[in-house]
């Protein structure tokens, strides 16, 4: 892990993960991952929110990072939306500030980013897409709904082994305000804590 990212991770208190409701939802994800790990099968996770622009990307990046941190093998994390827009720039800025290296692969209305947690890591690819995009797995994955709108609007995800609601408040509420940077940082850390809580429980 890059040094600044290691410093960010060191500040997370995943062992003090709060909230019984969130713990219960997280347990569904833990059970899915543990079942796959125990069986020696790939762990495919698709994090879904409405626009695939904020929370789903944060969850994808932090889940993949947590899997690497705890040395959980064969984990591949994806993200998608109920519609395609673009990764909101503040998300990339927030992850960069927290220690990730991010490079723009393609410009345009829907830029494509490479996101790395360490020099020799395979880059995570960040861009907005629908949850059933060919870029994402079509079968044998868990669909994790990171917003209540996507959760309510997509009662069925074709091909998913499991559908898990794990919503987070949208940092979009702060867009254009003096609090924007702080709100995005806090939401990123909240999602990071949740993902590290999940993966720290997995036993090899």
Automatic annotation (TrEMBL):
<protein>
    <submittedName>
        <fullName>Arsenate reductase</fullName>
        <ecNumber>1.20.4.4</ecNumber>
    </submittedName>
</protein>
<dbReference type="InterPro" id="IPR036196">
    <property type="entry name" value="Ptyr_pPase_sf"/>
</dbReference>
<dbReference type="GO" id="GO:0030612">
    <property type="term" value="F:arsenate reductase (thioredoxin) activity"/>
</dbReference>
<keyword id="KW-0560">Oxidoreductase</keyword>
């Amino acid at each position: 892990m890059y040094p600044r990212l290691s410093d960010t991770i060191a500040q997370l208190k995943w062992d003090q993960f709060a909230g019984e409701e969130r713990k219960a939802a997280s347990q569904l994800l833990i059970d899915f991952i543990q079942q796959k790990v125990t069986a020696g099968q790939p762990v495919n996770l698709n994090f879904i929110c409405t626009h695939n622009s904020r929370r789903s990307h944060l969850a994808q990046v932090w889940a993949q990072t947590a899997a690497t941190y705890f040395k959980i093998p064969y984990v591949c994390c994806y993200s998608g939306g109920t519609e395609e827009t673009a990764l909101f720039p503040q998300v990339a800025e927030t992850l960069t500030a927290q220690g990730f290296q991010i490079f723009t692969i393609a410009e345009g209305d829907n830029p494509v980013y490479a996101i790395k947690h360490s020099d020799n890591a395979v880059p995570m690819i960040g861009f907005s897409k629908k949850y059933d995009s060919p870029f994402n797995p079509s079968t044998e994955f868990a669909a994790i709904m990171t917003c209540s709108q996507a959760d309510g609007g997509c009662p069925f995800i074709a091909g998913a082994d499991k559908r898990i609601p794990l919503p987070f408040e949208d940092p979009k509420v702060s867009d254009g305000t003096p609090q924007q940077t702080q709100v995005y940082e806090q939401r990123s850390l909240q999602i990071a804590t949740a993902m590290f809580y999940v993966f720290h429980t997995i036993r090899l």
